[in-house]
Amino acid sequence: MELLSPKSGNRAGYLFVAPYLLHLLLFFGYPLLFAVVLVFNRWDIVTPMEFVGLKNFGRMIHDDLFFRAILNTGLFLVIHIPLQIIVALFFAELLNSKLKGRTFFRTVYFLPVVVSGVVVTILFQQLFAFDTGFINNVLSALGGERVPWLVSPQWAMPSIALMATWKNAGLYVILFLAGLQNIPASLYEVSDIEGAGTWRKWWHITLPMLNPTVVTVVLLSTIGGFSLFIEPYVLTGGGPLNSTLSGLLYIYNQAFYFNHMGYAAALGLCFALIILGVVLLQRRFVETDVY
Amino acid sequence: MMAAHRRNILLALQGACVLLIASCDPAPPVEVMGEGDVVHLTYWCAQNPQERALATQLVETWNAANPDVQVQVQPLPAGQSSEEVLIAAIVAGTTPDLSSNIWPGIISDFIRADGVYPLSSFPDFDSLMMSRVPADLLARFRAPDGIYYQIPWKTNPIMLLYNQQLFREAGIEQLPRTYSEFMAAAARLTRDLDGDGHMDQWAGYRRTHPIWHERRFDYYALYIGASGGKTLFDEGQVRIDTAASTKVFSFFRDVYAHHYFPLTTFQTSPILSGKVATEFTGPWQIGWLDENAPPGFEYGFTPLPVPDDYEGPAYTFGDYKNIVIFSNTRHPEEAWRFAKFLVSREADLQLLETTKQIPVRQGLLTDSLYAGFFARNPKVRPFAEVALYTRGEDGVSSLQEILDAIAQQFEAAAVYRVYSPEEATRRALARIRLIHEWNS
């Protein structure tokens, strides 16, 4: 009975949230706080921390490679996001039609999403290999030129964006499919009466009605794109000529190859602020366009 | 009631503090043993099957002969690399008593963390080392404070593995010794077998990813050869032989310009599948080839190529693995006794027999104890011949970052020809100086 009183009810509530709160404090709050402390320190793990004030930020300003990594990530996003939307929307439209074996195709398109990123990356490493890869062997057999997918600074990042699109499209297909199925059929019926063609219906009904889904896909793709790591780590190691060095890969190298924990934390903080800024801008502009 | 409660809390806090301080004690006291007490040591070996088998055999022999000091062998816990695991263990204070899988490039970090025991403080250290390692080679393992923290245990000299059948088919009778000879051989070994206008067989292959450890087996190995055994540092100062470095960059630049090494990724071993004719590798490859090579696969080893104008012994990179005793051991004397056993003549024979890796021991080819092994394993002999002409990495901090600086220039100058070899050397040198200053 005591548990049901308003005061004891609060206590029970606290008890129920305590495990999650503890987990949050231990595995999110503490590392976050520790990272903020690291930002102002020099620490190589093995020796005690040394307070360096804002020196890590000073070093960052002169670090061309970090800015290169940010630009590379930007290039990846510029290729990946539109491609992701177009591909996912195309397949969602197909799956929304009266296609035979729709359930089978939905499963097939979603399959790459659940396969480990490392496995997919190793698979594409073999597909994209310049001298011995499957795609280039086919191109060569057909009399075409070999494409330097991963060995040319111009081609490497677009190739990675292509692979990431293949890997993630299934998830966004599902989101677009849900969006398409939520569009009231009455809108299409009215447009039919008005004599609108397929293209006008798609442009004036489907696309505007899908805008909330587009916003979600853009935001998720952006945040996911900023986390670009496994693909360049396994496929190219950041090369050729640093053309696939992503922000996260650079931070990882600084922290875990070179043990520059303080500097990596400063880079990480700056990177997090950039992501926040880009996402806020996207929300402002994309949502304004939607409504 | 409240006062008692507070007192209990204070006592608990005090106890926790004492435990915390005790757990942070960097130097555990040496345990004094009574007569009849048995000392237990923990020994971490490498994870690969051959070295696990070797460690198990050696520990069984030791335990049978030394009932007062019982050793438990454990393979290094799983991790991305041994170095990461060991650093984590030092920071957490969970290191074993000793380990035999220590890369000399990481020792300086261990020293800075007070993680390793000064071995030269043992009175018989000098005599043991002088009987085993030439003085000039031993000096390379001395820390900047003048102390030795490691025993050079084994080295894996990097040599050129070649497919004898492909060499025969290409009409190459003389093994390439210089850069020019290698280029001439490479031109004959790189072939379009099916006539589609694209090469299907190459002279060699190296992964070109700009990752620090990749360059240890190509640029660095050839640099040591071209410089007559110099490394990147001397007495803690950057001392790069710029002429040798430029020659090595030029060599690889020519190799990639002529497409003698492909820019690709292979699904299976390219040397076994006959896709490439040579490989820069170490003696560990012999055991692997014996197990995996198809019937009739003929191979041999020859020293890495050197610049055309080079004269002198064939130096190369040796991937050393050394023995250390960790500073948190409670039994340094007993650990030292076991470490001496690990580098005894009999243990070195066991190392050769089980792993086909080369102990750092002078007179290896003249000692009758090993004659039978080399008679049965002629392919290991070339590695033993060059073992004392190997150089490892410098024991300086931030070695990974220094090798990364080279990897970046290797990719730019050799693979993509963005800079000239001279410019690549200049840039690498400037970057290495900066890294060294930043971390000193």
Please state the average pLDDT score of chain B: 90
> Strand share of the residues of chain A?
under 5%
- Please state the overall shape of chain B, judged from the principal axes of the Cα atoms: globular
Seen as an oligomer or otherwise, the chain set is heterodimer
Number of strands of chain B: 13
CATH architecture of the largest domain in chain B: 3-Layer(aba) Sandwich
Number of domains of chain A: 2
How many β-strands of chain A, per DSSP?
Answer: 2
Largest sheet of chain A: 2 strands, antiparallel
What is the second-level CATH architecture of the largest domain in chain A?
Orthogonal Bundle
Radius of gyration of chain B (CA) equals 25 Å
For the residues shown, what is the average pLDDT of chain A? 90
**Biggest beta-sheet profile of chain B:** 6 strands, mixed
Can you lay out the helices and strands and say which pair or pack?
The complex is a heterodimer of chains A (291) and B (440).
Chain A: H1 6-39, E1 41-42, E2 50-51, H2 55-61, H3 64-96, H4 102-114, H5 117-128, H6 134-141, H7 156-181, H8 185-194, H9 198-209, H10 211-226, H11 230-235, H12 247-257, H13 261-290
Antiparallel strand pairs in A: 1-2
Chain B: H1 2-24, E1 39-45, H2 49-65, E2 69-75, H3 82-92, E3 98-102, H4 107-112, H5 125-132, H6 135-139, E4 151-155, E5 159-163, H7 164-169, H8 179-189, H9 219-226, E6 233-234, E7 237-238, H10 242-257, E8 278-281, H11 284-292, E9 299-302, E10 316-317, E11 321-325, H12 332-342, H13 345-355, E12 358-359, H14 368-376, H15 381-386, E13 390-391, H16 399-415, H17 421-439
Parallel strand pairs in B: 1-2, 1-3, 10-13
Antiparallel strand pairs in B: 3-11, 4-11, 4-12, 5-8, 5-9, 6-7
Helix pairs in contact in B: 2-13, 9-10, 10-16, 10-17, 16-17
